[in-house]
Amino acid sequence: MPTYEYQCTACDNKWEEFQSIKAEPTRKCPKCRKLKAERIISAGGGIIFKGSGFYQTDYRSESYKKGAEAAKKASEASTASSSDTGKSESKSAPASSPKKESAD
């Protein structure tokens, strides 16, 4: 059952009520007892995930986990070999570019 927020237009009292979706909205203010209560739109409750067990891969099968591990190792190996190749290419490149002489 949801919790609804109400506000009295007569005395500006605000409160929450835990009631069924099918229930009629409360009209009587618990503070001033007038029939001026209105249900207001609220932001609702936020969801906060704490602790372990909320990761996408926590409930995967063992075969999926093994495949993901192998793919991770393969990508790490390919990035390591490409970074080594990049270093050797930078050594063979010229240190500076030729300068143009200006005509005065």
If you had to describe this structure to a student in words, what would you say it looks like?
The model has no long low-confidence stretch (mean pLDDT 77). This protein has a domain at 3-40. It has one helix at 62-92, and strands at residues 3-8, 14-18, 37-40. It is of the alpha+beta class and 104 residues long. A hairpin with a 5-residue loop joins strand 1 and strand 2 (14-18). A 3-stranded antiparallel β-sheet has the order 2-1-3, with no helix packed on it. The longest helix is centred in the C-terminal third of the chain and has 31 residues, at 62-92.
Query: Which blocks of ≥5 consecutive residues have pLDDT under 50?
Result: none
> Rg from C-alpha positions?
34 Å
Could you give the order of strands across the largest sheet? 2-1-3
Helix content: 25-40%
What is the element string, with H for helices and E for strands? EEEH
Characterize the biggest β-sheet.
3 strands, antiparallel
Outline, from the CA principal axes?
Answer: elongated
State the distance separating the first and last CA atoms: 87 Å
Number of strands: 3
Percent of sequence in beta strands: 5-15%
Topology:
Elements: E1 3-8, E2 14-18, E3 37-40, H1 62-92
Antiparallel strand pairs: 1-2, 1-3
Characteristics:
alpha+beta; 30% helix; elongated
Summed up, what is this model?
This protein is α+β, with helices and mostly antiparallel strands and 104 residues long.
